[in-house]
Amino acid sequence: MASQKPRDEPEKRLGVPSRNPLPLSASQEAQVRDLYYARVRKQCTDEIKAFAACALGRTFSVSFACRAEHRAMNSCMKLHATQQEHDAAREEWFALRLERQRQREHKAKVAAAQEDFMREWWGLPEDVRLSRQRDLESRYGEERVGGMPAKDRPMQGGTGTTAR
To answer: Does the keyword Mitochondrion apply (predicted)?
Structure first.
């Protein structure tokens, strides 16, 4: 079977810019970008601190007096600002999704408990509470990834049930 490729060659990847090619919303992409910039800044902390120390107490003369530190900082950030780092930040964002979901659920439970307390304290009718709850559910629904809410996506296990 000469037509088969040898096992030593790595598989060629598709022309996808990331290992997680799901389309994200603009706010989700901004969160990924924030993680990415934080990761790059973390790798260049020494250069950033050197530039900040040089620029301390200067205004107009920063561009002249701190030119070497500025170039060192920029070159470090350019060196570490790669597509692999962006992919790593994107994967970190996906890994933190469950934690964010748990935080949202906790906030919703606390808000519901406070709403129940206020309704009982002030003697509000039940329909006021339910209308507010519907408004909150429509505003803060499930996290959307790839255009579908998380509860509507099929599970990876192939059981045919939906994830929650």
So the answer is: yes
